[in-house]
User: Which sequence fits this backbone?
């Protein structure tokens, strides 16, 4: 059923009893043309674009928990395309363009809010690095504005301009960046994929990948064997574990990233703001809570929770940046498992196992990539070759040296 | 997280810096390897590939705000339970030369 | 609604001090409470029943609970810079002058315009916003979202800087006891008597928990009296630390707990120099969780009306605070605890109209309680609907056979059973387990070292609380290595806690609320189920159930039970959502502590800082260092000062503090071999008394760091690193020595802080140095040529080190002295060189001279460049293994199309170039395809009398002499530059060797 203000009105008058399930709850068939492992944002988007763009009809998404139970439901909701390197910027800009048309495309209000992303700089060298990046963005047709201190003050007068250890000199603003209601992205893609006939199979954990003569032919699951013409892995922090079932060893480490939300308050922060004298990002959800985060804890983890030192560090940065938030309370903090790659950039590619495709390495930037990741992964699976947008996201780049190392920190995942 | 440094006793993890997998081994025995050539795969493995297990993990930590010893910590990465902490130099001295199985 | 007055305070009883009245205001109305009150109890005593508005429908709301679980009675506490939105009135201790205001209403609490949302409720069903507001797309940010944002949120955050202080401390203990109800007190007493170091943390401002709220007896004494005696005994134990007003908010790995102590929230302002709150990091060998249980509301129509209250809370107000939440009450319950509610209310003079129990077969005790109170006992009945708007006026119930009965009342005391507060048991991933007998989720797998006792473990009766607490205390102390203490468990009643399921009224009229604060009703849960949001997490996220400031403390279990009913599954199969820290919301300030403002991070100053300050330096942040940027004379801006400093240095002599460079002392028989492995070039061939520039790679083949290393002795080197990488290089060397090559006999230690080092540069540098060196030391070009190094004696016997190094390209030295002489050295140099025109120069001038000389620095050593990119390809020796050598051979790292170091000069005189600009061919469109590279550094060069710079450019060295553009789109600059060899100044190096 189509969502609109009219359906909302007519259903309201009928006591809201006529709403249909957002998706079916199918039992797995014996085989599909494509099986996507992982019912998170990327997996669901991949299934949707496989059906919509490439016309495939016989697709399943298998998910070990509930739809959207991974990082799509536990991130800080930021979308942007303010990247530096040529392997990245066009991809993320394509993602932002897809975000811009997403709601009408999938008939679901994911609250794409282009409220602006402001990266603060606190030194001349940081300013120069942002100028380099802003120019790189403009070369790719991405909007970028350099603000001086007054420009920042006009947007965010509550920041510490008077007593800061690292005074704010200015910022790089991408006005088209912003936030998206994260759960709604998973649900919107799920519903749209279901409408195009994709089977979304929840509570179905993959326990093995069957490989015959070098070719992946299906997945063993807690609901039995499911045959597959092609298998796409979109398992984020669990990628290493699942890929190992097909004998692959990957340039990935799984790390925990914590995130935080405060109690709801009336509007106070209108943009996404990042602190340059550390690693801290904050926005305010439409519901009123400040949503924020910082660095990963920095050690391998599959535990979806972190420890106090990182929490304290994030709070220090937030309080230093916004001295009025001391009395605001943290309501909840949680962790997600990041597939940290060795150069900080993702992988969307075929694998040495025929019929097995890989979408991973999102580090802690996967949410903003959701539409383009799904779109490019669908292309790579359907056409057996990457699209130009994900051409740089090759698995073999670590061997060839064609790295995409935005931060320049080398093969140390916890520094990206 | 609390890590029992063999030299300093139990300390909070804020005193330590993490490097990663302690099971990968620098191929010191293949210094002449070149990209695409013999021995390169060992280097590629060392620098880039990780088992990344969801289970017991032997990993290198540096007691950077303490005695500055490198440590090999054996930790279950689903529960974070630590089974052992060893001095990395002692572990390194006990192992066979690179390249010997 | 009753007029606010003291009329609701009982003449005697309770733990309030009638001799100490406390004045406060609520929504501007002046009221008086008593010492010992919470804001909520004072409001109850004043007859204030309407205290807030709900999130979505702006329904009028009263006080539901008497504790941390409160969803309704949220206020803005205090004003101005100390305004604290969403403060639970039930947890706010009353103090003289307290100012509270209701929130999320306009224009007033009684007349709230957005209450119109109640009429729109059918359109505002769960998740309605996902289905609309999509057309036109541009309206979201401009129209819909601002409206939604303004309507959402709850209170208003303070706008000014928080004036209060926060602090942190760490506590180590053998046994941490969380909660000081009967179970916690017993655990703390037992463990304390063993001699163990015990920390007892209690959320409330007095110890005792429910003992303060119940008319119960322990060892024949009133429970509150027993609690006070226990508290006194604990306070007298030297190894026991009692932390009242302290919430243990989270469990972390390996026995670490986070707690926040509210030091001054019960005062108008913190004492001078005192902190408002203190965060404790508690490290415990064993933990006893005695966090109690939270009562569940019953789900029936309009169950959110002010005056509908949890039964245990009603007892608390009566017993502990001597405040009457109503005069005519109906008690409605599904459990035997109702007997005590009836008794307590009746004893306080409340007329209990009826006791409504959903069970047909009730215990004699319950009957007796009803009889004693003169209340009608209605069994087998369910509540249908509360009547009244701003305050409940009656409760309509359905009796067996379908007959409706309506009881007039101004208080409905409801109890749907108890939910153990298991939150801390699941912070490390433990899953609570459904128990059908207790009708509760009980602790599942526990954090290592934790035991759960009392109501938190489903042991609800007072006797069980005392017993389980005592045993857990003994066990914890024993496990921590103490001899088992002698503990006698006090006698108390094992009252019945029988409970029967009543998850919702089967025929509720009106809206039946499950999550009060977020306005989630049974209809929303049904809709969620209908639309396939059936997993508990989907339910939560789709309806926002459990996502309010109370995190579902009163609502989660009811909601899970409803979903289970809808799915036709047992509750155990539906499961529960994940509990996450903090247990109750914690102020960001407390978690941040004192690291704010200027104290956010440490400030590192060199030993010569004071000299530089006196010399008029403007300082620049370099990481955590403050370094002199330039030394302006009156009337000079930074550029004028910088240019003068460069000219003075190149024309005479300048001095510059370079102490922030990392300095690592490396010694041992294998030092030379070691350096050959960590540097890409060879260091073993360096002669004693010589220094050499070195380049380090990362193992992935990209440049890591650079610096000079001096050989001070056969087995003794001094390595320098960049300022930025000093720490990382040191850690890397330790990694190499301890892990990669443990058999190398080498010691390395950072001596950055131990040495002050100054660059002395310019044609007069030798003359100047000669004057500060003690007599008899020959530093002529022959005796001390370029790259020489060695010990010197200066300033009358100071043992220093001299290095003939040049970053500026001039005849230059670096002179090192022990940091204790770091202030004396520049003063001596300035005094000695006055007639030579010696000039202090800062980072800016240093940067200009390094650009003129084509030296790479941070902007080029950005982690993305190879040695060859920087024109240093020959520095990667092919004769030996070194870190990074193999990976540096990868095709992409030796691609001739890589961006490579090049110099440039702006063609038009006086026109600036700027770092971060990208190179484009003249006439080329600014596109990614046409991007040739970028400007890494630019400056005004006195030597070139124009703007020059360095950059990384595709095949840059092949294009020297050509013209391209430095395009800076974000700064709207676009200048034509001529590509040059990166060494602008003295390319033959004659000056530095002179």
Assistant:
């Amino acid at each position: 059923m189509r969502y609109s203000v009219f359906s909302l009105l007519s259903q309201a008058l009928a006591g809201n009893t006529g709403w249909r399930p957002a998706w079916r709850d199918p039992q797995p068939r014996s085989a599909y043309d494509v099986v996507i492992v992982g019912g998170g944002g990327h997996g669901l988007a991949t299934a949707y674009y496989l059906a919509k763009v490439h016309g495939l009809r016989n697709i399943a998404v298998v998910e070990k928990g509930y739809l959207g139970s991974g990082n799509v439901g536990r991130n800080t909701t930021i979308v942007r395309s303010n990247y530096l390197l040529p392997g990245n910027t066009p991809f993320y800009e394509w993602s932002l363009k897809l975000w811009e048309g997403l709601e009408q495309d999938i008939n679901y209000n994911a609250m794409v809010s282009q409220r602006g992303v402001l990266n603060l700089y606190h030194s001349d060298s940081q300013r120069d690095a942002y100028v380099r990046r802003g120019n790189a963005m403009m070369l790719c047709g991405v909007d970028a504005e350099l603000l001086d201190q007054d420009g920042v003050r006009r947007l965010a007068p509550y920041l510490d301009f008077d007593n800061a250890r690292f005074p704010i000199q200015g910022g790089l603003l991408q006005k088209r960046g912003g936030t998206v209601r994260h759960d709604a992205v998973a649900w919107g893609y799920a519903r749209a994929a279901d409408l195009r006939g994709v089977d979304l199979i929840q509570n179905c954990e993959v326990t093995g990948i069957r490989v015959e003569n070098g070719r992946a032919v299906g997945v063993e699951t807690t609901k039995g064997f499911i045959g597959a013409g092609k298998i796409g892995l979109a398992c984020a922090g669990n990628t290493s574990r699942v890929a190992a079932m097909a004998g692959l060893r990957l340039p990935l480490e799984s790390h925990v990233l914590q995130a935080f939300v405060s109690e709801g308050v009336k509007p106070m922060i209108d943009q996404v703001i990042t602190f340059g004298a550390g690693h801290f990002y904050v926005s305010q959800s439409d519901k009123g809570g400040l949503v924020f985060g910082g660095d990963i804890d920095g050690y391998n983890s599959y535990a979806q929770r972190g420890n106090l030192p990182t929490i304290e560090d994030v709070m220090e940065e937030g309080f230093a940046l916004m001295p009025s938030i001391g009395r605001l309370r943290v309501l909840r903090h949680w962790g997600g498992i990041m597939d940290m790659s060795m150069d900080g950039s993702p992988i969307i590619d075929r694998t040495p196992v025929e019929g097995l495709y890989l979408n991973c390495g999102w580090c802690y930037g996967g949410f903003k990539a959701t539409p383009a990741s799904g779109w490019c992964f669908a292309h790579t699976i359907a056409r057996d070759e990457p699209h130009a947008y994900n051409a740089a996201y090759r698995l073999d780049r670590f061997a060839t040296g064609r790295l995409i190392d935005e931060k320049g920190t080398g093969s140390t995942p916890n520094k990206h | 997280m609390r890590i029992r440094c063999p030299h300093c006793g139990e300390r909070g993890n804020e005193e330590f810096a993490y490097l990663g997998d302690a099971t990968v081994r620098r191929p010191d025995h293949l210094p002449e390897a070149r990209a695409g050539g013999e021995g390169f795969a060992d280097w590629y493995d060392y620098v880039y590939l990780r088992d990344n297990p969801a289970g017991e993990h032997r990993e290198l930590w540096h007691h950077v705000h303490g005695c500055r010893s490198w440590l090999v910590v054996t930790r279950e990465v689903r529960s974070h339970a630590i089974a052992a902490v060893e001095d990395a130099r002692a572990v390194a001295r006990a192992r066979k030369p690179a390249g010997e199985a | 609604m009753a007029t606010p007055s003291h009329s609701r305070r009982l003449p005697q009883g309770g733990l309030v001090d009638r001799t100490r009245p406390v004045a406060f205001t609520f929504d501007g109305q002046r009221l008086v409470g008593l010492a010992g009150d919470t804001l909520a109890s004072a409001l109850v005593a004043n007859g204030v029943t309407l205290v807030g508005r709900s999130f979505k429908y702006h329904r009028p709301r009263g006080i539901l609970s008497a504790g941390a679980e409160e969803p309704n009675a949220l206020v803005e506490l205090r004003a101005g810079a100390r305004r604290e939105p969403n403060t639970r009135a039930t947890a706010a201790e009353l103090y003289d002058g307290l100012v509270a205001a209701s929130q999320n209403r306009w224009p007033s609490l009684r007349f709230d315009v957005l209450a119109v949302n109640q009429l729109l409720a059918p359109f505002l069903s769960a998740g309605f916003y996902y289905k609309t507001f999509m057309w036109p797309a541009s309206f979201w940010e401009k129209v819909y979202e601002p409206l939604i944002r303004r309507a959402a949120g709850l209170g208003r955050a303070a706008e000014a800087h928080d004036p209060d202080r926060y602090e942190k401390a760490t506590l180590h203990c053998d046994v941490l006891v969380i909660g000081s109800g009967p179970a916690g007190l017993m655990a703390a007493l037992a463990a304390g008597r063993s001699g163990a170091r015990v920390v007892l943390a209690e959320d409330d401002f007095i110890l005792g928990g429910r003992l303060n709220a119940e008319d119960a007896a322990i060892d024949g004494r009133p429970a509150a009296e027993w609690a006070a005696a226990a508290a006194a005994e604990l306070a007298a134990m030297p190894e026991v630390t009692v932390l009242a007003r302290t919430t243990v908010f989270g469990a972390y790995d390996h026995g670490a707990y986070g707690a926040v102590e509210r030091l001054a929230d019960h005062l108008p302002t913190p004492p001078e120099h005192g902190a408002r709150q203190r965060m404790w990091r508690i490290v415990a060998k064993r933990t006893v969780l005695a966090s109690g249980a939270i009562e569940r509301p019953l789900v029936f129509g309009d169950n959110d009306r002010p005056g509908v209250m949890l039964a245990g809370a009603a007892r608390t107000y009566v017993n502990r605070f001597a405040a009457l939440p109503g005069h005519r009450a109906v008690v409605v319950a599904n459990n035997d605890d109702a007997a005590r509610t009836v008794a307590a209310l009746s004893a306080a003079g409340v007329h209990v109209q009826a006791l409504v129990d959903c069970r047909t077969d009730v215990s004699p005790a319950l009957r007796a309680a009803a009889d004693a109170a003169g209340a009608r006992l209605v069994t087998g009945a369910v509540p249908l609907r509360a009547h009244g708007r701003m305050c409940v006026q009656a409760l309509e119930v359905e009796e067996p056979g379908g007959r409706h009965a309506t009881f007039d009342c101004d208080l409905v005391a409801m109890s749907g059973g108890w939910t153990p507060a298991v939150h801390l048991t699941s912070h490390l991933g433990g899953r609570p387990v459904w128990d059908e007998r207790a009708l509760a989720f009980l602790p599942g797998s526990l954090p290592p070292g934790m035991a759960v006792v009392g109501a938190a473990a489903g042991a609800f009766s007072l006797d069980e609380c005392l017993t389980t607490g005592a045993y857990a205390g003994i066990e914890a102390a024993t496990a921590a290595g103490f001899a088992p203490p002698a503990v006698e468990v006090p006698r108390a009643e094992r009252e019945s806690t029988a409970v029967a399921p009543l998850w919702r009224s089967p025929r509720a009229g009106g809206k039946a609320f499950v999550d009060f604060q977020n306005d989630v009703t049974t209809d929303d849960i049904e809709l969620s189920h209908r639309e396939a949001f059936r997993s508990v997490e989907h339910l939560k996220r789709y309806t926002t159930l459990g996502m309010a400031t109370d995190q579902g403390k009163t609502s989660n279990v009811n909601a899970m039970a409803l979903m289970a009913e809808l799915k036709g599954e047992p509750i155990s199969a539906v499961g529960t959502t994940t509990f996450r820290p903090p247990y109750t919301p914690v102020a960001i300030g407390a978690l941040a502590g004192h690291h704010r403002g200027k104290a956010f991070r440490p400030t590192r100053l060199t030993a010569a800082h004071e000299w530089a300050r006196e010399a008029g330096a403007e300082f620049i942040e370099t990481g955590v260092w403050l370094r002199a940027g330039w030394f302006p004379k009156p009337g000079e801006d930074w550029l004028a000062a910088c240019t003068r400093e460069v000219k003075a240095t190149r024309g005479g002599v300048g001095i510059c503090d370079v102490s922030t460079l990392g300095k690592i002392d490396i010694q041992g028989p294998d030092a030379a071999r070691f350096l050959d492995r960590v540097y890409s070039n060879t260091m073993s061939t360096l002669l004693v008394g010589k220094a050499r520039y070195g380049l380090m790679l990362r193992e992935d083949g990209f440049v890591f760091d650079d610096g000079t290393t001096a050989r001070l002795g056969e087995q003794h080197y001094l390595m320098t690193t960049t300022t930025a990488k000093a720490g990382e290089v040191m850690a890397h060397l330790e990694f190499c020595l301890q892990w990669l090559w443990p058999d190398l006999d080498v010691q390395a230690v950072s001596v950055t802080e131990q040495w002050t080092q100054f660059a002395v540069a310019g044609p007069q540098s030798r003359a100047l140095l000669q004057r500060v060196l003690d007599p008899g030391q020959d530093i002529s070009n022959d005796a001390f040529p370029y790259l020489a190094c060695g010990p010197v004696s200066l300033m009358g016997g100071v043992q220093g080190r001299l290095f003939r190094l040049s970053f500026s390209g001039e005849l230059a030295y670096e002179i090192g002295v022990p940091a204790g002489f770091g202030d004396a050295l520049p003063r001596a140099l300035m005094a000695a060189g006055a007639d030579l025109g010696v000039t202090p120069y800062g980072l800016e001038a240093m940067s200009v001279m390094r650009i003129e000389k084509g030296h790479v620095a941070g902007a080029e050593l950005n982690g993305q460049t190879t040695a060859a990119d920087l024109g240093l390809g020959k520095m990667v020796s092919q004769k030996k293994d070194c870190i990074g050598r193999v990976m540096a051979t990868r095709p992409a790292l030796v691609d001739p199309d890589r961006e490579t170091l090049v110099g440039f000069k702006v063609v038009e005189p006086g026109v600036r170039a700027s770092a971060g600009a990208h190179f484009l061919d003249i006439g080329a469109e600014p596109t990614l395809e046409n991007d040739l590279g970028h400007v890494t550094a630019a400056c005004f060069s006195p030597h070139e009398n124009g703007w020059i710079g360095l950059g990384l450019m595709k095949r840059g060295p092949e294009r020297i002499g050509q013209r391209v553009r430095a395009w800076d789109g974000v700064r709207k600059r676009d200048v034509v530059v001529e590509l040059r060899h990166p060494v602008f100044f003295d390319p033959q190096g004659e000056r530095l060797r002179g």
